Amino acid sequence: MLKPFLMLLMLCHLLLNPVQAATNGQDLAFLPEQQVLAQLPQLQQQAAADNKLLLLVLGANWCHDSVALLQQFAKADFQQALQQRFVLALVDVGYLEYGQATANRYGLPLYYATPTVMVIAPQSGQLLNKMDLLHWSNAVSYDLATYQQYFLSHDFQQQFARQQQLLAQISPAQLAPITQYEQQQAATLAQEYQRLGPLLKAYKASGLPASAEFRQAWDEVKALRSAILPKVEQLQQQAIKAEPLPL
């Protein structure tokens, strides 16, 4: 009688704690954004209490780089090591219609790639790895050693501190147009996501080769989203050197 009762308790735990359940064993999965958003305060508290970082991934099952990232995360030894350093949450961006609210929560106007890997300091809610956000959009091309070096050895707090030291050299008057530029570009990208999303969904559902319309839309969005953060970094460097900003 005890064994069925224990199984029932385990099932209840999985149902009541879907984010945590989806980060155990081989069951890693992107979950609906509203579901994860509701649990993020609890997950941040858990990370802070356990002296861990919050690892927040925005991705989708149609994205081969997102799938590759989860496959590496699901390898038993690596997953155990990840759990020693992070509390993990996985957000499904759907066909680009979701994910912005999650990005906004941590000071990012939009996500610029799938997958987007956000490392969060749980006590402050600060995004520690903003300038790395495009790196894992090529997740399928990296071997396990690269994953291990970044997620297990990289000093995110030190990286964030260095970035803050650089930004401290920029006056508020110089920083304002850079922030405005990113927000404007993100707003344009959000509109492009709305245009591309239905085309992407139809393409994936059809099982047919990509149409010329879809390929053109995809390439245009990729060019836009891939350029925003490098341009922000360029503008920051120019501001530090007191060069005129080419906005």
Automatic annotation (TrEMBL):
It comes from the Bacteria. GO terms for molecular function: isomerase activity. Residues 1-21 form the signal peptide. The keyword Isomerase applies. InterPro entries: Thioredoxin-like_sf. Keywords: Isomerase, Signal. Pfam families: Thioredoxin_7 (PF13899). This is Disulphide isomerase. It comes from Rheinheimera sp. BAL341.
